[in-house]
Amino acid sequence: MSGSSAERARDGRTQQLLERRRATLASSYRLFYSSPVHVVRGEGVWLFDATGDQYLDAYNNVACVGHSHPRVVAAMAEQAGRLNTHTRYLTDETVDYAERLLTHFAAPLDRVVFTCTGSEANDLAYRMARAATGGEGFIVTDNAYHGVSAVTAGMSPSLGLGVAAFVRTVPPPTATGSGRDPGEEFGARVRDAAEQMAAAGVRPAALIVDTVFASDGVIAGPPGLLRPAAEEIRRAGGVLIADEVQAGFGRLGDGMWGYDRHGVRPDIVTLGKPMGNGYPIAGLVSSESLMSEFGSRARYFNTFGGNAVACATASAVLDVIENDQLIANAMRVGTRLRRAIADLAARHPAVADVRGSGLFIGVELAPEGAAGPSATDAARAVVDGLRDRRVLIGTAGPSANVLKIRPPLPFSDANADQLLEALDGALGDLTAP
Ligand code: PMP
């Protein structure tokens, strides 16, 4: 407990807010960190708490161009002050943004549907894949997360509630090397799952993958990783859905989309989180030919999806990504950071693997002998230790033993150095007497 009366007063305010939150928000909500951060303001890579303390944000991919980016905020406010209607009216902003977004996709990916959330985009991908293939079975990875709607929660084993009857799970690509080519191995897993599905009388409709396998523990894998799996699902009559909600918009530093690294062209791509830098806009991109079966029978209207403010905001996000060369920055700073963390690992026996691409880094921790803490407890301790040092990260993976480092894309060398110093300290605390 802090000493001065001013400190006690502010702790009291945060405590009160916590109690009001508990009394009003449903019990399904969760807060990050053993000691929650009461944030009141964001700017660039920084978050500020109610006491004015400054935190380096190395976690939030939603604010991909930085918190409260002035250009994005100005575009949002200007459009909100002029017009905000939905897609049943003809508006310049929606078509302008659709045209601009589609320049980042190669043929035949030539149509977009706007939604508000990644869950809605994946839910729609489910409906479109079924309509296009006539199949109904979906293959997902063992600890996948694809959303919160009834259908997408059923495709999200990481929620811990099992999966829907139409879903088969496969282990994600091996992260730490089993001796086999991880892409071939993953392709074989997809083939087996599709065969088992067909044997049970279920026609495969799709393989859906987060292209950085974030909830499976951050597995960027070697370039080309997804190619064999894409071939297998198509051979089985299904389509490949690339869930770019985590990896998309340049985070992996190697092109705009996670699948770019793997030389595959998905049949359906879903987008979300970073698309509006915090304004709710998400979407689905596919080809007119794939969508036509669904479109001929169904009308799709999403009241807020693709409204003029959403599209003006998302367009400003692309301005910043392009003008500030944030994809190249993600690659340069991310690669340096990943290598420096790998160097740190030599001093910290708890670190079992450092992986990722661009500004999406996973640091896997392993238990240190039977007497030491579990890897899950160690990861929690490191995340809390960083929070105490005013640096924010999270965890990933089925055992939550992978440190998840996923900062806004303008992360600088100096930011990376600050993170490294704090990480060194927090890892050091694991073995401190
Ligand atoms: N897919 C992936 C890979 C995600 O990480 C998320 C969100 N964490 C979603 C889908 C769902 O997005 P939303 O929360 O916007 O519904």
Characterization of the model:
This protein has 433 residues and is an alpha/beta fold. Helix content is 39%, strand content 16%. The chain has 12 helices and 15 strands. Strands 4-10-9-8-7-5-6 form a 7-stranded mixed β-sheet, sandwiched between helices. It has a 4-stranded mixed β-sheet with strand order 1-2-3-13. A hairpin with a 2-residue loop joins strand 11 (351-357) and strand 12. Helix 4 packs across helix 8 (288-297) and helix 6 runs parallel beside helix 7. The longest helix has 20 residues, at 5-24. The mean pLDDT is 95. The structure holds 4'-deoxy-4'-aminopyridoxal-5'-phosphate. 4'-deoxy-4'-aminopyridoxal-5'-phosphate binds next to helix 4.
Whole-number radius of gyration?
22 Å
Shape: globular
As a percent range, the share of helical residues equals 25-40%
List the ions, cofactors and other small molecules found in this model.
Answer: 4'-deoxy-4'-aminopyridoxal-5'-phosphate
* Largest sheet report: 7 strands, mixed
Major sheet strand order: 4-10-9-8-7-5-6
Helix/strand class: alpha/beta
Question: What is the total tally of β strands?
Answer: 15
**Unreliable runs, pLDDT <50, ≥5 residues?**
none
- Termini separation comes to 23 Å
Question: How large is the share of residues in beta strands?
Answer: 15-25%
SSE order, as H and E?
Answer: HEEEHHEHEHEHEHEEEHHHEEHEEEH
Count of runs of 4 or more consecutive helical residues:
12
Quaternary class: single chain
What is the averaged pLDDT score?
A: 95
